[in-house]
Amino acid sequence: ENIFDRSRMAPKTPIKNAPVDLSKQKGCTPERNPITPVKLTDRPQPDPWTPTANLKILVSAASPDMRDREKKKELFRPIENSEQGDTTDSLQDDMVDDSTVDEFEKQRPSRKQKSLGLLCQKFLARYPSYPLSTEKTTISLDEVASVLGVERRRIYDIVNVLESLHLVSRVAKNQYCWHGRHNLSQTLKTLQEAGELQYGELMTFPQKEQDLEYKTGEQKKETIPDTQGKPPLDFSEPDCTSASANSRKDKSLRIMSQKFVMLFLVSKTKIVTLDIAAKILIEETQDPVDHSKFKTKVRRLYDIANVLTSLDLIKKVHVTEERGRKPAFKWIGPVEFPGKMDELRGHSPTSDPLLRTQRGVCAPYQICATGKQRFTRHTSFNSVQPCEGSRRKVSSEPNSPHQERQDEYCSKIINLAAVCRQKIEEDTGNKACAKKTILTSIKNPSTTSALSLLPVPRDADFCVNPLPQAVFPVVQADVPNLSLLNGVSSQALHPSMPAASKTENGKPTLLPSQPFLCFPSSSLFMLCTSLQENSSRETLPTTGGMGNRNAEGQAAVPPPACQKRSSHECTSPSVPGDDEEPAAKKQTMERSDVPLSLVVPKKSFESPKAEPTQGSACTSAVHLEDFHLDHASPAAPEAVQKESTKTLDSQNQEKRSQNKDPDEPSPGKEHILKENTSQPFLPQYLYVQPAAGLSSFNFLFTANQTPGAISLAPSQLPSLSVPCVVVPSAALASFPVVCSPSVTGPLSPVPDASFSAAASMNFNMCSLASTAPVFIGTTSAVVTPKVTTTPLVDPQQPAHPTPHMSPVLARSCGALQLDSPVCMGHPVTLLKLQQPSSAPLTPKSIRPAHHEAFFKTPGSLGDPVAWKKNEGNQTRNASSVQRRLEISSTSPD
DNA sequence: CGATCCCGCCACATT
DNA sequence: AATGTGGCGGGATCG
Q: Buried (b) or exposed (e) across A664-691, using 16+ Cβ within 10 A?
């Protein structure tokens, strides 16, 4: 355009060559022209501009020209009216224009004409999408700004987003280098991987370090320290981290952009609503204050979305949820990147996944690390890319670089995951999210489950429908069982079970029966899982085979990551990929160390644990929304389980059939569930999430033994007699209580069976509720296999398990993902899970607190309701208050 | 009236 | 101190 303009302009304009006609034509008031000065240049540019005022005028004036050009381009077309404008000059004229313009319709430069999206299109039109590698195009911000007739500030908005996708890189002050889309797929791939890791897994995290390095400020708020940046940093590289990392505000816009893109890449549906994205992106804070923050975030997202839209990567759509329609964006860019996954993702079925995952995971992380390394400025990739550098890509890519930010980015990304979790929680609290979730959940029962929990409240409508129907049946059956459950629970409680300890199978015994109870009204959410890292991992491979069935692989990416994490403990930051894994493992490890950790609502305790939960929730929510995940995550774990479980599965299936709602999620889910179910899971933790806002769901999961072990409130649970209890919020009331059928019967008999039963229960729940429960079940199932199952109850020992639990869950998820497509969907979930683990990291510090909290909780638990209330309210504040109780399920080894 | 998001102040970073 | 960057949010416009 510029060119055109100039050429045209030249002739036209009286002025010299103002780049834009605009100025010339109209209006440029003399003054204005003169003003311009600044910079500019040497070149042909017009002098006139500069001043914004002038610009505006110019713009208006120019508009006509613009439009012509635009038309050419097409871009403008959409705009329609906007264009016109030729008319008059000066501002005054604008008014006139309208009248005058009749012909065109135009109205002066309407706001749209000046939209960032349009501006971006113009900007992009200036450069070739696929420039010759050899030639390098440099972009002068001033020049562009003047040519396009906008203030430089706007150009920054565009460039920052483009930079996040590596379409451009900053070379120097005011100078950017245009790369075009050559690396776009690579970048997206990297982002996807990173997204999977983060969101999917979460990271890890080392709280401690984090504190030091990054400021705690924000992070801590969340309570999710881990999630936040630190972990990444830690992982990535120590050195860098501190430095680069440092806070800085970093360009949130860049980071946000990447995160935003990651959400799309991770989501199944490829649709992300603004509010969800905003929630996820809001890293810190959660608290009340946020509102304004949320608003600001959304504003930024619009900016980003406009640019992405111009890039044809996304398009605006509306998602109508039950309530109403929400603005959302659909990813229309490439979904699969050549080569991208390959190893990483691993959707490969079976065993591969593990490998992949591990490695794959590493890669992403690495990336981050890399980024960090560079403190200074490298340009090449900012955030996400890290991977490249470190791992494969390497790249050098770019030349240059500048910007150290990447490191930060990486960390941030990590944080994002955490944030997401938190947010999710919050969201859950909030209705909107919940709704979505619910919806999604409905669609995908399993997947949603987690999410659904959150949403529950409001959506009751929705929720109800799906859930109730499906659920009820189950419940009914279950109810009777309660007694059984009790029996079971008792068993569970008594961790002593050696059998359980033995291994996965054994463990089941504990859980066996765990049925679920859903109470409407409470807001508690408890998640119990127990798992061991090892087992889970191991299982994963197997699982892969099992779970894969569906293996859609689509987005599956996440799973791998999870697995990865789980697989490795590595602390070493050096390897990116490893980082996560290690972290994850570590987390798990750590947790394991800690016998019982309670996860308190994030903030309150600050313990990381809470985070995970949230994170999971968040993720799930995200998925749901976007994708409706599948509950794949759960499935993954199952694979392992399958062995013993199969029988269970069969049972489960039956149940499922019953349970299934009309809606019924996809079969895949069922599978997953089955798998999950099959695996016994041991609830190590209890998660209580009371979302303040959420309200609707409360879940109580008992780990198998946990309850007993925990001592939580045996009385409480016991009374229930169900290992897991899900309590919907009051609002939920609609929900019936659900007891896992399987549980009832089985309990005593065979541990395995019981597990399976339990698992099934969970699944059922999920299907029914379509919400969180499912996840839980899954995770737990996954976890259980090994350690968890073991019944040990010792608090401390259990603690060990506990830690695992979260990790386990994550792992399991990862496994699931790997295996089945479903997993893919769930990736997010998984992530969340991991996060928790990460959160947990802190085991140390946390532990004590947790314990206390933990205990408390139980007490509170005594009354489910009361419990909910109390905690829910309290916790809420943090966005999600989640508490995890770890139950020691068994003593891990 | 809610969704969008332009506009530009102003703080922080870099030179 | 000047200039580059870019966070941020008021408030206008759109639908």
A: bbbebbbbbbbbbbbbbbbbbbbbbbbb
pLDDT at A346: 32
CA distance A87 to A538: 72
Q: Work out the burial of residue A768: count CB atoms within 10 Å of its CB; fewer than 13 is exposed, 13-18 middle, 19 or more buried.
A: buried
Mean pLDDT of all residues in A391-420 = 37
Lowest mean pLDDT among A379-383, A469-473, A533-537, A809-813: A469-473
Measure Cα distances from A607 to A197, A706, A841, A885 in Å.
Answer: 21, 19, 8, 12
Classified as helix, coil or strand, A697 is: strand
Chain B footprint positions (protein CB, under 7 Å): 3-10, 12-15
How far in angstroms lies nucleotide C12's C1' from the CA of residue A846?
49
Beta-strand pair A697-700/A724-728: antiparallel
Q: Would you say residue A191 has pLDDT above 70?
A: yes
Mean pLDDT confidence for A699-716: 35
Residues 55-84 of A with CB under 7 A from strand B: 56
CA–chain centroid gap for A651, Å, is 33
CB-CB contact of A813 with A563 (8 Å): no
Looking at residue A499, its pLDDT comes to: 32
- Residues near strand C (C-beta below 7 A) are A 39, 107, 110-112, 141-142, 152-153, 156, 159-160, 170, 172-175, 249-254, 292-293, 295-296, 299-300
pLDDT of residue A283: 53
How many CB atoms are closer than 10 A to CB A92?
A: 12
DSSP symbol at A785: I
Does any strand B atom come closer than 7 Å to the Cβ of A325?
no
Per CA to C1' distance, which residue is closest to B11?
A: A249
Report the alpha-carbon distance of residue A76 to residue A501 in Å, rounded.
67
Cβ neighbours of residue A743 closer than 8 Å, sequence gap 6 or more: A478, A481, A484, A485, A488, A512, A513, A514, A515, A722, A723, A754, A757, A758, A761
CA of A845 to C1' of C2 (A): 48
Instruction: Please give the pLDDT value at position A265.
Output: 83
Q: Which nucleotide is nearest to A81 (CA to C1')?
A: C14
The nucleotide whose C1' lies nearest the CA of A173 is: C4
Spell out which residues of A between 153 and 182 contact strand B, using CB within 7 Å. 153-154, 173
CATH numbers and ranges of domains, chain A: 116-203+248-331 (1.10.10.10)
Our measurement of CA A353 to C1' B5, in angstroms, reads 44
Q: Is the pTM of this model over 0.70?
A: no
Q: What is the pLDDT of residue A882?
A: 31
Strands of A516-518's sheet in order across: A516-518, A724-728, A697-700
Within its chain, how far is the Cα of A192 from the centroid?
Answer: 11
Which of A729, A740, A702 is CA-nearest to residue A718?
A702
Give distance CA A412 / C1' C13 (Å).
34
What residue is closest to B14 (Cα–C1')?
A173
Q: Confirm whether any atom of chain B, the nucleic acid strand, is less than 7 Å from CB of A323.
A: no
- Which pLDDT score, from 0 to 100, does residue A125 have? 85
pLDDT: is A671 or A272 the higher one? A272
Cα angle for residues A689, A826, A466 (degrees, 5° grid) = 65
Output the distance from A827 CA to C2 C1' rounded to whole Å. 49
Angle at A880 between CA A563 and CA A570, to 5 degrees: 25
Residue A291 pLDDT > 50, yes or no? Answer: yes
A43 touches strand B (CB under 7 A): no
User: Do the beta carbons of residue A383 and residue A164 sit within 8 Å?
Assistant: yes
CA/C1' separation A404–B14 (Å): 14
Q: pLDDT per residue over A333-371, tens digit each?
A: 887 766 534 333 333 222 222 122 222 222 222 233 223
From the CA of A68 to the C1' of C15: give the distance in Å: 26
Please determine, for residue A300, whether its predicted confidence score (pLDDT) is greater than 80. Answer: yes
